[in-house]
Design a protein that fits this description.
By secondary structure, the protein is mostly helical. The protein has a domain of 55 residues. It contains nine helices and no strands. It is elongated, with a radius of gyration of 17 Å. The relative contact order is 0.10. It comes from Ambispora gerdemannii. Keywords: ANK repeat, Repeat. This is 9201_t:CDS:1. Pfam families: Ank_2 (PF12796).
Length: 161
């Protein structure tokens, strides 16, 4: 059975909570993402578990290299972050700009969770910026302070371009 044109996106089906469409993909043994998809933004935990159990990688990237973990971190979905990590999501995976999930952590809670699972606060993106510098520039000051307390970066380091 092949998915219809209007239902070819497993991620949208999961995000919309359309279990029947997700099962249709499962029956098709669909295991990759249609190029251009945005990933995992509004997923329900049960659907994420179902997708992972069917072989869809939690490290799957979209055209920008964005992953389900980065999406969950950027939206501060703590339960989903934990679920993805427990199912093999790479806390140091990089997108096309070299950003790791720690670079999109807007809250201390999300940043601490990533750090507890091995996120490296010293990884620099393609612009040469650390997660602390990114957090400072985005004005996520609590996160910037947390990361600087670990890395030893000074505020001047975070302001440098």
């Amino acid at each position: 059975m092949k998915p219809t044109e209007t239902s070819k996106n497993i991620w949208i089906a999961a995000g919309d909570g359309e279990i029947e469409r997700v099962q249709e993909f499962r029956e098709c043994k669909y295991k990759s993402i249609v190029k251009g998809d945005k990933l995992w933004f509004t997923f329900r935990e049960i659907l994420i578990t179902e997708l992972i159990s069917r072989g869809i990688s939690p490290n799957e990237k979209d055209q920008n290299g964005y992953t389900p973990l980065a999406a969950a971190v950027s939206y501060n979905h703590i339960a989903i972050i934990e679920l993805l990590i427990s199912n093999g999501a790479d806390v140091n995976i990089r997108d096309n700009e070299g950003d790791t999930p720690l670079c999109v952590a807007e809250t201390v809670e999300a940043a601490q969770l990533l750090l507890q699972h091995g996120a490296d606060p010293f990884i620099r993106n393609t612009e040469g910026k650390t997660p602390a510098q990114v957090a400072f520039e985005e004005e996520w000051l609590d996160v910037a302070h947390l990361l600087r307390s670990i890395t030893g970066e000074r505020q001047n380091d975070s302001e440098a371009e």
